[in-house]
Every structure is written in C-alpha cells, then in structure tokens.
Design a protein that fits this description.
α4 packs across α6 and α6 (207-224) runs parallel beside α7 (236-247). The strands form five sheets. A five-stranded antiparallel β-sheet has the order 5-16-17-18-19. The protein is of the alpha/beta class. 58% of the residues are buried. It has helices at 72-81, 100-113, 136-141, 159-170, 195-200, 207-224, 236-247, 258-262, 284-296, 311-314, 331-340, 347-361, 432-443, and strands spanning 6-12, 18-24, 27-30, 41-44, 49-52, 54-59, 84-89, 117-120, 148-149, 175-178, 191-192, 204-205, 227-230, 252-256, 301-302, 379-389, 408-418, 421-425, 428-429. The protein folds into two domains: 6-49 and 376-432, Urease, subunit C, domain 1, CATH 2.30.40; 53-361, Alpha-Beta Barrel (TIM Barrel). The chain is globular. Bound molecules: N-carbamoyl-L-aspartate and zinc ion (2 copies).
C-alpha cells in the first residue's frame, strides 16, 4: 500500500453525487464533499467520474510461455492504463496454469510488477487437453487461492468431465468459466456462419455451436447445484438461453466483451485479421440483443478477453491468422460509446458490470472494490467528455492487435489508483521501478 495521500477534489460518484475522495495509507478515508487534508496531493477531479477500480475477469497475460505477445508486467501496465485494478489471468499459457506451482508463479509476477492485482485462473483439464481434470483442489488451496477455473481457448466438451468439474468447485464455492464452442460444429471455422460467410468464401461458425453448449451446461449446473460462468456471449440465442436459466434459478453468470457490443461481421469484408476473434463478430441483431441483455442484467459483466498476438500472427492471410484482440485500454471507451452514450447504461451500471459484479463472481476479497470508507483505494477516474481517435499511443502492452486503431471513441481514463498507489497519473503510467517498490512495501 502506498503511503502517499491523495484528495480527488470534485469527483462525480457513479450515483451522480459529488464527492471529494480522500485516500490515505492505501485506503479510502472519506467520500464526503469539502474534505481537506494537509499534505495530500490534490487531484482536480472536476468533471471526472470516479468508478471503483475496474476488474477484468478475462485477461490473457500470456506469461509463462508466450512472452513475445505479452508478459504479466506489460499486460498489467495495459490494465492500469485502461483503468483496471484487478485482472484474472487466463490459463492458456505454456506451461498451462494447471498446477499450484504455475498459478503461484503468475500471482507472484503480478505482485512484483505492482500495477494491478493479478488473480490466476486455473485450467479445468490437464494441459487444456479436455481429458483429465487438473489439480483443481491444490490450486484452490494454494497461496493463489484460485476460485475461477477455465480451459478458455478450448471448450470443456466432455459432459462427464464438465459435471465432475462443477461438482469439484462446488465444494469450495469456485466457478467454472466455460468457453462455449462445440468443436465438431466449428472445425476450421473462420467467421460467423450466414450469408456473409458464403459471400466471402470463409467457413462459417454457426450460432448453435455456442448456444448448444450453454444450454447443456446450464442444465448440468442446475443438476449439480454449482456455479457456472459463460465467457464471451456472442449471439442473441445465447442471451435467450441465459435468460431462461436465470428465470429458473440456475446459478449462472454471463459475460460479454466490448468488441461483441460494438463491432459486427461486416468489418470482415476488409479481410483485415484484426477483426478475427473467437467467438466471431456476429450480426447487428446479435449486438443489439447483447446490449439489451447487459442493460437488463441478463449479462452480468463485461470482460475484455484481452488476447495479444504478435504482428506475424495477424499480418497474414485470414485463414492463417490467430484469433484474438487486445482490449484493456479500449474497454471503458467502447463501453461508454456502446452503452452509456446510447442511454442503455448509467455510470452506476458501468461500475456494476466492470467492477462490482466481476469482483463478486471471481470472489475477490470482500470490500476490495466496494468503494466505501475504509475500503482499499481502488479507484478509476474517467473523463466522459473526451472523444478522441484511438491510436497506438493508447496501447501499452507488447502487442498492437486492436480493432479500434483509427476509430473515434468516447471517454478517456485519466487516473487509476491501485490500493492507494497511482498507477496512472493524468494519462501517464507510473514508472516500473516505482510500481515495483510500492508493491514490495505492500507485501511487507
Ligand atoms: N478470444 C480469442 O480470440 N482468443 C483467445 C482465446 C479465447 O478467448 O478463446 C486467445 O487466447 O488468443
Ligand atoms: Zn474463449
Ligand atoms: Zn479468452
């Protein structure tokens, strides 16, 4: 925790109320107006919206194994620049995060970097192989205290394994985060299946490949009585299945990515592989259904699915290119553009879907993102009036595969505080050494 004090003067809370937020010794001391504090660094927050630090339940940090794409350090710098104070690191690393040793290593790298809380996600099956359950209990009991398990990138396709995984995590209140993709229905699939895939001559990826797995898994979750989370929903039909499951009382939560809330398959006419992502960009009707589902709570959270890939994996023919987009720095601007500016979500809603709900699903420490007096100072200040071209300067990770380069987006993150340490200062990232020292002090 940082020893430095800050007074965020004249901020607007998600509720719309004005507040002077006083941060001391890593904690929020008060959020009333008219606060004065001798010795505190005053931040002019007039016109800025103060959100609880953003929490990403779905980030690919790529370390260990794919450090040419991203590392825990570069990925958490991107996170801080995007307003995130906690990220859940997906397990598709090399070695796969399927043992207590690997998840503890990832968490330690996050602590040492100092830019955000890193909570590792454990793989459901050994090596993401889909054949044998990984050491789920050992990862849960490790120092990393893993609560979220996922084979993301691959679907846990075997129904019996999925049932056993749900039974296992139920014993310690964990959750299985499913990448819902029937492998047989999507062999060599390249984009959404429909008239456009026929026109472009690319192999189609049918909506039913996602929806059928979600339908099976909500029924399994009901049967077991365990928690299930569905990653990156992309179709209107998936929304219908989740809505049905929630009405039935099934413990399921769902996520949408910013890109599935803004972009459609029409972009693929360019054959620009920056638009190649798993699940694929869909139709306008799907985007509208996902937006409404976020607004009415059927979709619980927005998660980035930040998926960095090096240039050579993207600057090639469509069929050969890797699936995935970076998304940490563009998440808040895209959410503002797609949902706030359109009147579908207010700032309290943004705080819910980008911070409070993901923290709750991932079982982050109680109050860590509660945004109340005495809570750890995880705070993000956003300038909602800014509208700017999203350019390379906005990216801080190791990869640049953003679909938004050159696009105009609303809103800009100005300040990020992680446990009282300012990781982003009026748009500028804290130096690496300073962040590492602050993290070191916090551990002691
Ligand atoms: N989303 C993607 O297109 N790619 C992800 C895997 C995944 O999230 O399924 C990746 O690891 O690159
Ligand atoms: Zn996935
Ligand atoms: Zn992913």
């Amino acid at each position: 925790m940082s020893e430095q004090s800050y007074l965020l003067k004249g901020a607007t809370l998600p509720s719309g109320a004005g507040a002077d937020i006083l941060i001391e010794a890593g904690r929020i001391v008060s959020t009333t107006t008219g606060a004065v504090a001798a010795g505190a660094t005053v931040v002019d927050a007039a016109g800025l919206v103060a959100l609880p630090g953003l929490v990403d339940l779905h980030t690919h940090l790529r370390e260990p194994g794919f450090e040419q794409s991203e590392t825990v350090l570069t990925g958490t710098r991107a996170a801080a620049a995007g307003g995130f104070t906690a990220v859940f690191a997906m397990a598709n690393t090399l070695p796969v995060s399927d043992t207590a040793g690997v998840v503890e290593q990832v968490q330690a790298l996050g602590r040492a970097a100092g830019y955000a809380t890193v909570r590792p996600i454990g793989a459901v099956t050994v090596g993401l192989g889909g054949e044998r359950l990984s050491e789920i209990g050992a990862m849960a009991q490790s120092r990393a205290g893993v609560r979220v398990f996922s084979d993301d990138g691959k679907c846990v396709h075997d129904s019996l394994l999925m049932r056993r995984a749900l039974e296992y995590v139920k014993t310690f209140d964990g959750v299985i985060a499913q990448h819902a993709q029937d492998p047989r229905l999507t062999e060599n699939a390249q984009m959404n299946e429909g008239s456009l895939s026929s026109e472009l001559g690319l192999k189609g990826w049918p909506a039913v490949a996602e929806e059928s797995i979600i339908a099976r898994d909500v029924l399994l979750a009901e049967h077991v009585g365990a928690r299930l989370h569905i990653c990156h929903l992309s179709t209107a039909g998936s929304v219908d299945v989740i809505r049905w499951a929630k009405a039935r009382g099934i413990q399921v939560t769902a996520e949408a990515t910013p890109h599935h809330l803004l972009l459609t398959e029409e972009l693929i006419r360019s054959y620009d592989a920056r638009y190649k992502v798993n699940p694929p960009l869909r139709r306008d009707e799907d985007v509208q259904a996902l937006r409404e589902a976020v607004a009415d709570g059927t979709i619980d959270i927005i998660a980035t699915d930040h998926a960095p890939h090096p240039r050579e994996a993207k600057e090639c023919e469509w069929d050969a290119a890797a699936f995935g987009m970076v998304g940490l720095e563009s998440a808040l601007p895209v959410v503002q553009t797609a949902l706030v500016d359109t009147g579908l979500l207010d700032w309290a809603g943004v705080a819910r879907v980008l911070s409070q709900a993901p923290a709750a699903i991932g079982r982050l420490e109680r109050h860590s993102h509660a945004f109340e007096d005495g809570a750890p100072a995880n705070v993000t200040l956003v300038d909602p009036t800014a509208s700017s071209v999203f350019d390379l300067e906005r990216l801080h990770g190791r990869s640049q595969n953003s679909p938004y380069l050159g696009a105009t987006l609303s809103g800009s993150v100005r300040w990020t505080f992680h446990e009282g340490f300012a990781t982003l200062r009026d748009g500028v990232l804290a130096p690496v050494g300073e962040a590492a020292d602050a993290a070191d002090a916090a551990v002691r």
